[in-house]
Amino acid sequence: MHDILSGMQKIVFYLILFISSFISKSYAELTQGPPPEGFSGDVGLAVYSQNSITQGGSSATQVLPYGYFDYGRYFVRIDTFGIKTIPLGYGYLEFSGKYNAEGFTPKGTSYSLLNQRDLPIPLGIGTFQVTPIGAFFLNAYGDVAASKGKMAEFTYAAELALPLSVKIYPLVGFDYKDKQYLNYFYGVTSVEAQRSGINTYTPSDGTSPYAALIVEVPMSEHWILNTFLKRKWLASTIVNSPLVTERFLDNIFISLNYRFE
Q: Is there a contact between 131 and 88 (Cβ–Cβ < 8 Å)?
């Protein structure tokens, strides 16, 4: 399994190199024109729920805005946002950022003596390719906040149409995080170990596969009800941390959205 996941993370970075080399090609060779003008997509409100994977944490449920839309070159895709630049294959080269709630404050008698892990701020490049065989999301980020680590994500999404205009979107993918990123969030330094009595821990890089399902149910001409379920199997370098209490991360949300077309 480790060899398979190591191979997967290499694929991500080979794809990033492919994107970089593609930029040098002439615009005549690219298949897309400028992004459509105007606003299109879904905007609404969602109830989000996520289990805690760290010591002293608890599951969190929040009511927050939901967005999956394009406005000319600008886009929002739930937790990812950015701007489309030059055409690339079936999509565009994108500069993007991501909301990531991975920061936390260790809790518990000894764990409270550890440092707080601040929220990351991932910024980078990527692409969203809508092809005849499905959609591909590929992003590579650097955390410009405390960890200064790097990460990459790959997702494949298919679309299945059901009666009554219901649609199902199965998704599979994985994320890769380098040693520096994981060491900041899940490592225990010698200073922290001396202060708390918890063993030192220095993780290596890790790859976490995931699977998800989106069910889209039209409520009227413009109103859509979405249900999203996702499970991520955490990399062993995360699971083995003394700060971590779970082997997987679950995300669920239900959203009611207005669709602009």
A: no
Residue corresponding to tokens 């794809």? 15
Q: So where are the chain's domains? A: 2-260
Angle value at C-alpha 94, between 136 and 174, nearest 5 degrees = 40
Helix (H, G, I), strand (E, B) or coil at 80: strand
Which tens digits make up the pLDDT trace of 106-122?
988 899 999 999 999 99
Long-range contacts of 188-194 (CB under 8 A, 24+ apart): 188/114, 188/241, 188/242, 188/243, 192/113, 192/114, 192/115
Its CATH class, for the domain covering 2-260, is mainly beta
Q: What gap in Å lies between CA 217 and CA 165, rounded to an integer? A: 7
Q: Which residues pair with 209 in a beta bridge?
A: 174
Residue 31 has a pLDDT of 52
> What's the half-sphere exposure (Cβ side, CA atoms, 13 Å) at 139?
26
The model's pTM is: 0.85
Q: How far is CA 8 from the centre of its chain?
A: 16
Q: What is the pLDDT of residues 52-104, one digit of tens each?
A: 999 877 788 999 999 999 999 999 999 999 999 999 999 999 999 999 989 89
Compute the distance between CA of residue 204 and CA of residue 179 in angstroms, rounded to an integer: 5
